[in-house]
Every structure is written in C-alpha cells, then in structure tokens.
C-alpha cells in the first residue's frame, strides 16, 4: 500500500506510539500524535531492551545511539534473601545464548531518542490532548477531552497503554505492583555491572537492581531499584514512614540498603488484559493498549516496538488497511498469546501471596533452568525470541 500522504492519527506518545510514528512518517505518511501531557515525556522505570527490540532499533538506524547510553546485560540472576530458608540459593538463572545480550536503559534515554527520530521524520504532535474515544466511520477520528473531534484519518492507532479509555474493556489490575527509583550506580559496589539481580522471600517480597546506563551523553551511570509491593499496602507503606521501609530493605537484602537510602520511590501498578486488537474500521491497538502484563518477563516496551514494526511492515506490503491488519495479526498473534499466557502462569511464582508456588520455584525452577536444554529454552523465552517474532515480520520495510 502506498503510504505517501497516508493520514495517521496516533493516540499516545509512548515507546510504541513514537516507534510507529517514526516508521510510517519515514515512508511518507502524514502522522499526527495526540498526547495528554503538556509535552511528550516518558512514564515508567528502566528496563532491558531484548534482542527483539534491539533488532528493530538497528533497522531504524538507532542502535548505536542507544548502545552508547545503555548498559549491556548478559545475565539475570535471582536468589533467596538472607532471611529465607536456604539464603543465597539460586532460583532464577538466565544467560543469553552465545554472544547475545540485552541493553538496559533508562526509559528517558530511549524516549528522547525516539522522540528526536519522530520529529526528524516529520511527525507532528498535539499536546494537552487527552483522548477519550474513537469516532468510527470510513475515515475514523478521535474524541478529545471536552468533546472535540480530531480531523479524520486513514488510520487511527491506540497506543495509550493499559489504561486506554478506548472501548469498554477495563484492564484487570494485578494485586502486586512495585516501588521503583532511579539511583546512582554504585561504582565498585556489590552489584555486577552486566546483570539484573533479584532477591526473594517467598513471592511476597522481592527486590531488584538493574544497571541502566546514562540518560544522555556525559551523564552519570544509574541503576533502577525495584521493591515489590501489594497495591493494597501502599497507604500503609506511606504511613509507616521511610525508616520502616529501610529496615525492611536491610532485612531482605543488606547490600541494597544504600540504594534505597537515596531512592525517591514511585509506585507503579500493573495490569493484565488482552483486548481485541482491532477496535473499529481503520482503528487498531498496539502495545499495552492491546496486551498488558506484569513486568516479570520484562517484555512490555519490546513487545510494543515489535507491534509497531509489524504494523508498519504490513501497511507497506498489503494492498488495503483491512489486509494489512490481517497480515499484522497473523505476524503477531501467536507471539502475543504465548507471552500473555506465560506471564499469567509464571508471575505468581515471583509475585503473589502463595506459599506453595514459591516453594515449588525454590525446589524445581532454579535447578531446572541450569540444565543445558532447559536453559536454552528459557533464555529464548525471557529474551523475547521464542517463535522468532522478528523473522515473521521482516525489517527491510522499515
């Protein structure tokens, strides 16, 4: 399908929305992104760009820039906390196959890179524009807060994340969220500079440390510190005060206490849903607006970028929007289903009130994932490469 002059309205200037906007604008589409913020800005913690996301950034010509800011990750390691039975026992062991790796980044580093690429490609932005719904028709449009309708477009994309108001299918909030904070990386400290490290007490307490590189050239190296927390307990956590929390951190993982002492935690809530990807004629969802999960598998931003690449490729190859949607869903359907299912099944082993599931994890999962064949399988799963989603798409069209 010829994209010169093709009009696209994207609701949401997150990782998925900016990626898609850039890809389509580079092929001649006229792209307008609507965002509720006063200026586009990132929301969320640091994360690992997996080989899938890195392949897309390479195709976009952005890999070297993000590699210069991020931190190479070669291993994910989780162990029981000091006050658990069997302290120090490994219960999560994942290494990348061969010379593979991920790149951990501060969300702002990737966001700024994608925003600059979008602007350079000619993407336009309307800020302070909170989308409330879609106006269906042969050329759909968006309804903004206050009732104003946007100009109609050939394609409307919902990239507003798990809390998107489009449609009538609210996301199910998970019981556990997390506190997270970006803190200075402790040079020469107890943490490995190329590993995601976690500590657990059963599945009700978890802390993690991820080196995430720099926000921009010349800035200091940072880490993201995570602390698992039931959403219902957030008020009790605030009322108990900072010192009470620091005592909890020290009891669970003393080495992480210096990070917590300088942290300014943000509380994040997580959702799980799989909505219908097509929301009307010429209207489609990508990223968490389509499929939201717990961050336990760490795939959210990577999946949004794969969605964007798949949709852009399909629009370039198919003769019509309907056929492009069909091609896109064929490319993405199985991969999305697999990771939605895995997240739903595996998350309770690491974040839940269960005593049985973490006991099973401690006995079986850690030792099993060190077996060569299982380790290779789990590595492909956690790095997002199972079912080869990039090969299904073909990135030459980006």
TrEMBL record:
- Extract the SUPFAM superfamilies matched here: FAD/NAD(P)-binding domain (SSF51905)
Determine the domain of life of the protein's source: Bacteria
Keywords tagged on the record:
Monooxygenase, Oxidoreductase
Highest lineage ranks of the organism?
Answer: Bacteria, Pseudomonadati, Pseudomonadota, Alphaproteobacteria, Hyphomicrobiales
Q: Check the record and name the InterPro entries matching this protein.
A: FAD-bd, FAD-dep_Monooxygenase_BioMet, FAD/NAD-bd_sf
Molecular functions (GO terms): FAD binding; monooxygenase activity
| Protein name as catalogued | 2-polyprenyl-6-methoxyphenol hydroxylase-like FAD-dependent oxidoreductase
Span of domain FAD-binding? 7-316
